[in-house]
Recover the amino acids of this structure.
């Protein structure tokens, strides 16, 4: 494979958006269900009627990882919109990393065939290994800085987007190195290259991808829920009718852990998320001590990364269709011609507010809905759509929902979030 000229690579990266999923390559199969990295299902992958499990929807729960129970956390929500400054910063990171990858390819191609080239390939893999260690420290420091109040929500998310973009570029660099290794006589890539590529994928996430797209001008803005503690972070948002969540727990990742098999990783995920695992057979992919498990199901997709050593899920990505979201309880209030229902859920979960006509039961569009958290001021969360619905994200403390259509007002106060339905091994 011949390297692109360095200047050309820089220009291309400045004008082209970063892909929102893991780059294709030896250890990054094609994009899987719902935009997660993972093996694509067969063209006719829908289970037959005989194989579909009978689902008790009344008792269904979709468990989700969160910050450690009892940890001191910082919780907030902020509005993510187009941001030229952040977008230019991301482009610079992309270009710098691509330039370095082009330089790596050039060094390998200029090395004499034989032992010298083999040594150069191994040296470049070693450099990526060291860079991944630094990337992990950088991300962990960002978690802790946010938890301590040293950086804002936006600064945290921007840093996590940069971390993800850098990891993606390292992954692509390893793809290029692997191709050069395969083209080298009497030499092949060491197994640790595959292991390193899987480990790099843990730094990506669907909320980070969305934050990048919005900063680069994708229409609309989104609320992003941010919860952090020492060594952990939760990000959540709503995208195109889906609840999207990503969680990273460093305390559950043994970076020096022993190798595990796909079967062990599947078993860990099935034990931690029994209700989700019962919906569909998991798909596994991994190498060494990190394995990725994906469960596409009728309500959405669960993707986990399982660590050797701890044999625990340490990264979780979820997408859940809002129309099927199971972990909620309704509270209602009627008055002033309104019948208002709030589907409350756990901290960071999607809250659905429905406003109907008190007499006819018909949806009322165009009504303003506000939310106040604790003793804070009310903030508008939007206006109801044609179905009389508006959505927000649940705070971690008591909140109040107010429906306003002057002079009519309905208030639902003292709404408590539900407990987070944690994985079995994290309860």
């Amino acid at each position: 494979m011949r390297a692109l000229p360095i200047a050309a690579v820089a220009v291309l990266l400045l004008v082209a958006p970063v892909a929102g999923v893991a780059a294709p390559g030896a250890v990054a199969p094609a994009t899987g269900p719902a935009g997660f990295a993972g093996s694509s299902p067969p063209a006719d992958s829908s289970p037959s009627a005989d194989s579909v499990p009978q689902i008790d929807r009344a008792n269904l729960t979709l468990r989700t990882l969160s910050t450690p129970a009892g940890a001191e956390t910082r919780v907030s929500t902020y509005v993510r919109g187009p941001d030229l400054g952040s977008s230019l910063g991301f482009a610079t990171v992309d270009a710098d990393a691509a330039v370095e990858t082009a330089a790596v390819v050039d060094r390998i191609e200029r090395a004499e065939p034989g032992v010298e080239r083999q040594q150069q390939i191994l040296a470049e893999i070693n450099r990526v290994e060291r860079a991944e260690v630094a990337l992990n420290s950088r991300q962990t420091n960002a978690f802790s800085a946010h938890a301590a109040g040293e950086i804002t929500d936006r600064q945290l998310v921007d840093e996590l987007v940069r971390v993800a973009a850098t990891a993606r570029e390292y992954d692509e660099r390893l793809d290029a190195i692997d191709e050069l290794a395969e083209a080298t006589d009497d030499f092949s890539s060491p197994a640790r290259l595959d292991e390193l590529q899987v480990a790099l994928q843990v730094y990506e996430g669907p909320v980070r991808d969305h934050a990048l797209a919005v900063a680069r001008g994708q229409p609309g803005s989104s609320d992003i829920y941010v919860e952090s503690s020492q060594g952990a972070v939760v990000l959540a948002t709503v995208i195109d009718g889906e609840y999207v969540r990503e969680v990273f727990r460093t305390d559950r990742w043994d970076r020096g852990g022993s190798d595990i098999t796909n079967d062990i990783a599947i078993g860990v995920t099935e034990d931690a998320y029994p209700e989700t695992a019962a919906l569909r057979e998991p798909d596994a992919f991994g190498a060494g001590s990190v394995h990725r498990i994906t469960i596409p199901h009728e309500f959405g997709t669960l993707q986990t990364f399982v660590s050797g050593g701890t044999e625990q899920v340490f990264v979780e990505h979820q997408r859940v269709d809002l129309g099927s979201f199971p972990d909620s309880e309704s509270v209602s209030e009627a008055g002033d011609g309104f019948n208002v229902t709030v589907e409350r859920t756990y901290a960071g979960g999607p809250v659905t507010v429905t406003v109907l006509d008190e007499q006819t039961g018909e949806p009322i569009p165009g009504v303003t809905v506000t939310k106040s958290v604790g003793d804070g001021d009310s903030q508008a969360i939007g206006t109801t759509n044609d179905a009389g619905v508006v959505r927000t994200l649940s705070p971690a403390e008591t909140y109040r929902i107010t429906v306003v259509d002057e002079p009519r007002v309905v208030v639902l106060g003292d709404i408590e979030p539900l407990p987070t339905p944690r994985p079995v091994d994290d309860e």
Q: What stands out?
A: The helical segments are 6-15, 84-110, 115-147, 153-182, 191-200, 206-215, 262-272, 274-277. Residues 1-35, 38-52 have pLDDT under 50 and may be disordered.
